[in-house]
Specification:
Elements (H helix, E strand, L loop, with lengths): L3 H12 L7 H9 L6 E7 L18 H9 L1 E3 L2 E2 L5 H10 L18 E2 L7 H7 L3 E6 L18 E4 L21 E4 L2 E5 L6 H15 L5 E6 L20 H23 L6 E7 L26 H4 E2 L1 E4 L8 E3 L3 E2 L3 H9 L14 H4 L12 E5 L3 E7 L2 E4 L2 E5 L15 E6 L2 E4 L15 H18 L15 E2 L4
Parallel strand pairs: 1-9, 1-10, 2-13, 3-14, 5-6, 5-9
Antiparallel strand pairs: 2-12, 3-11, 4-21, 6-7, 7-8, 10-12, 15-16, 16-17, 17-20, 18-19
Helix pairs in contact: 1-2, 6-7
Length: 483
Amino acid sequence: MLTKASLWLVFAPALGVSPPGGPSVVSQALDAEPAPPNIVLVLADDLGWGDLDASQPRGFATPALERLAAEGVRFTDFYTAQSTCTAARAALFTGCYPNRIGLVGALGPDDAIGLADSEVTLPDLARSRGYATALFGKWHLGWQEPFRPQQHGFDAWYGLPYSNDMWPYHPETPQSWPDLPTFDGERVVAWNGDQSGLTEELTRRAVEFIEQNAERPFLLCVAHPMPHAPLAASPAFRGSSQRGAYGDVLQELDASTGRILDALERGGLAERTLVIVTSDNGPWLSYGDHAGSSGPLREGKGTSFEGGVRVPFLARWPGRIPAGSTCNEPAMAIDLLPTIAGLIGAQLPPLAIDGLDIAPLLTGAPDARSPHEALFFYYNANDLEAVRSGQWKLHFPHGYRTMAGREPGRGGRPGQYDTSARVGLELYDLASDPGETRDVAAENVDVVARLQRLADGMRADLGDDLTGVAPTGARAPGRIATP
């Protein structure tokens, strides 16, 4: 933005004059306009909204994450775009609803699709601005060579190509999975590696990356494969919590975040770095004692209820984000790409995206409101299951899975979902009923009608299998030829 100070800086030397107040005025004015920030994004897998509610008994401690919240902002109503692995990551990295770009559900090792070359990603935008970029952890947007992180904006990658349970030690279907590779760049450096050392290695590489790039801007993504099952903590954290393996893993993930924050402090980078911590979706409730908590929210991963799609979100940027603040406005992972693009001065992708800039929410601008009239929740191939607008959330008739009345899993083996459950056309007031327990559609027919109209507008664009509407604005994923 051109200010009076910046104009004086340009023209005063040519005119042979000093700006009003002297050169120091210009220097102070320019110093007030901070340089584009470094970006650190920590993405947990299957971390529940209730897992970071320190006011509740949890059996584990997360001091680093509580410090992050105390020094920044906590969003209470932040959403993943879809409550499953591939779709959630597709949305975060492209700013699109995942069905817009043909990536839904969770890709497996045999799938021949992935992120298309034509899609512009968050690391693509960062690299266009001279940022160093790295991903340490899980990718899950296609494992074949054309779809890997290095082909989509990351300079460096170490980690897993898909979920950590897609291997021959799966507790239910071991025969269905090939050996699980660990990649270091383009090389496979391990098969079926010991996952107890994974968090430590990702953290070590993240700290090293920060130290190596202290003199240039960087985008660092740490995408932990856990607490998605199977759980594996390092020896230093094994048995450290009162919540068994799940608590041990959470305490190690928290310590990992603490080490990243400490590295930023040591390098004098904290004030120049936006740190974000969030999750790809809610907890995998069928795993019982190896799963997280949705807190007061209904259901979990694999559903469009709040427990599946509302996820933790913490952000810190000293001097720009008010310390200890809370944002109750709805926002979604699709908003991170356009928001970060604005902060680093990058152009938005040429193809249509769905996310909007939420920088005013992050920075606590007075009277800031969600830029979205509505947020939409698709599941399965292309089922529009729910829409949220303001305090209201409308579910459309669909089936869902639930552990209600079922025996939860124990020790790393999952329980069995009831897949016969159904929800009708039901309206919930999330302001007073975040647990979606009281259908108030009959008392609010005008609200139902308004949300149905919003849904019809989205159906005209991205379609809806539940109502038989074909998409007009969806794009194809990348695809490799199969024999």
